């Protein structure tokens, strides 16, 4: 009877080690993704080095689902630049073209007006109440490259949040049940 208890104890110990190893592997995957994201942020100078175009406001130049790569350089922002900006109090970054820039002499203040290529009006209607211009602190980055349509997975998961949880749960189960 003692050998049965020892065998069950060994089997439980092995299973526990395997589960622990799988949890560590999942943690390493997640932390690696975070390190890569932070590394890209440092290299590009942008808090968000990659964004997905989620609307058709920049068509035909950028389509819904395109992934944009951003960079924030010290070069001044000029009319014609495609920038990604965030408005205070709103979570979703916006990808639009700069159509007007005003720089005050003897001051570091820059006032920026944007517009989507596919929109009839400028973006003042999207800015906060009473806000007529963007300033440098609103700009997340300048578009320096893109991958067409690769961001559709993000759009689908945003439009159908249940899919995001199903995908994350499935990936978690795969990692936990995967044998080496």
From TrEMBL:
Any one GO cellular component localisation term in the record: signal peptidase complex
Enzyme class per UniProt: hydrolase
Keywords from the UniProt entry: Hydrolase, Membrane, Protease, Signal-anchor, Transmembrane, Transmembrane helix
Cell location: Endoplasmic reticulum membrane
Limits of the Peptidase S24/S26A/S26B/S26C domain: 43-143
Catalytic activity: Cleavage of hydrophobic, N-terminal signal or leader sequences from secreted and periplasmic proteins
Pfam families in the record: Peptidase_S24 (PF00717)
Topology class, membrane: Single-pass type II membrane protein
Transmembrane segments: 20-37, 139-156, 162-178
EC number(s) given by UniProt: 3.4.21.89
NCBIfam families hit by this protein: sigpep_I_arch
Function text: Catalytic component of the signal peptidase complex (SPC) which catalyzes the cleavage of N-terminal signal sequences from nascent proteins as they are translocated into the lumen of the endoplasmic reticulum. Specifically cleaves N-terminal signal peptides that contain a hydrophobic alpha-helix (h-region) shorter than 18-20 amino acids.
Family of this protein: Belongs to the peptidase S26B family.
Protein name (database record): Signal peptidase complex catalytic subunit SEC11
Species, as recorded: Vigna radiata var. radiata
Lineage of producing organism: Eukaryota, Viridiplantae, Streptophyta, Embryophyta, Tracheophyta
